[in-house]
Amino acid sequence: MSRKFLETESPAWVAEGLITPEQQQRLLARYPEGEHAVALLPLLGGLLLGLGVLSYVAANWQGIPEALRLLLLLLLALSGAYGSGLYFLRKGQEALGIGLLGLGLLTFGGGIVLTGQMYHLVSYDVRALLLWGAVGVALTWLTQSRFLFLLSLLILCGAQGYSADQFGVYSYAAMLLLGLGLGSYWLRRPARLTGWALALAWLAQMGLLVNTEHYPTLWLVPLMGLFYVAADFLPRRQLAYPVQLLPLVAALGLSLLATSTFTLPWLRRELLAVGWPYSLALLGLLAASAVGKRRQGELSGLADWLLVLPVAALPVGPGVAAFGQLLVLYAYAGLVLWAGYREQWRIKVNAGTLLFIVATTAAYFRLTWAFLDKSLFFLLGGTLLLSLSWWLRRRNEQALSRK
């Protein structure tokens, strides 16, 4: 909740008698104007100061005696930044303290690189970067800072990318630090921003895993499913929905690929490559998701798993399999719409409407692209989608107005 939202909505709450004017002022007092913008200044200042010091030292590194180099790294940079950061945290100046700790973390990473150059050390893996990331994870748990969480996330993703690019090796240690270290922190202190960032980082990690180890691409589905299932156990469902959106979009893309006879052969080859362990992994994730959704009273959300139903594996012709996948898409859109109407939740109703339009678009391309004149194809398609959008929107407004 933000001050702008309260300033817009709270007068109506007072007029309806939901809260008193005194309660309105107390709510507004909890969100002082300009507080967040001012709080960002120490963070940005710390980062700019750190980058300035590091760039200056790096530019003059060769001309500095070795003893003075170590003194700069250990005493002035590391000890000074960490010590002053902890000091300001204890004094209650959280933003300044976190900014200085972020400076210390950046200096620590820069010190690793500069020390390696100073002693001409040759690296054959990313252990030094993993140490840097581990320090970031420890600081995140110690300070419970979203800023340090995001900084540590970038470090671990960078370490994984460097390992894959320079050494051709996937770092399982980096994955564990991200998944267990930062993932468990997010489960304990969930927030939308960190959830989005963690979901994107996890997708990148899983993509590098599949690419580096030369696994079938389809293994990305259960690997992303792990993140989806973890969100099912969040205490607040409002935080789970944004985080689960990324795996759902990926699953929807896979389902759309299965509606085309051009991509269906590739999908069938992938299903043969992953075999029965893939199906077992999906069943296990489905069971775990059912447990989490049942605890939250959200069993209707199990319809999401229809998107990964392996219709392409059925022993039928490509045309029949593609048509079956279209039926699955329509069934999923209908279930989302039904759940939205039942819960009187506009966001879910709009999502179901969008899914219905996407399914209709896929069906239109599948059934008419081959034999319709292309100008007529786009003309009829645009008319169909606009008419369908208008009709569904009208139906949604009528259904929600009955609340």
SSE inventory with pairings:
Layout: H1 3-15, H2 21-29, H3 35-59, H4 66-90, H5 94-118, H6 127-143, H7 146-167, H8 172-188, H9 192-212, H10 220-232, H11 237-257, H12 264-296, H13 318-343, H14 346-368, H15 374-401
Helix pairs in contact: 1-2, 3-5, 4-5, 5-6, 6-7, 6-8, 7-8, 7-9, 8-9, 9-10, 9-11, 10-11, 10-12, 13-14, 14-15
Order of helices and strands: HHHHHHHHHHHHHHH
Percent of residues in β-strands? under 5%
Overall pLDDT score: 79
Helix percentage: over 70%
Please characterize this protein's 3D structure.
This protein is mostly helical and 403 residues long. It has a domain at 221-403. 79% of the residues lie in helices and 0% in strands. The chain is built from 15 helices and no strands. Helix 7 (146-167) packs antiparallel against helix 8 and helix 14 (346-368) runs antiparallel to helix 15 (374-401). The radius of gyration is 26 Å and the shape is flat. The model has no long low-confidence stretch (mean pLDDT 79).
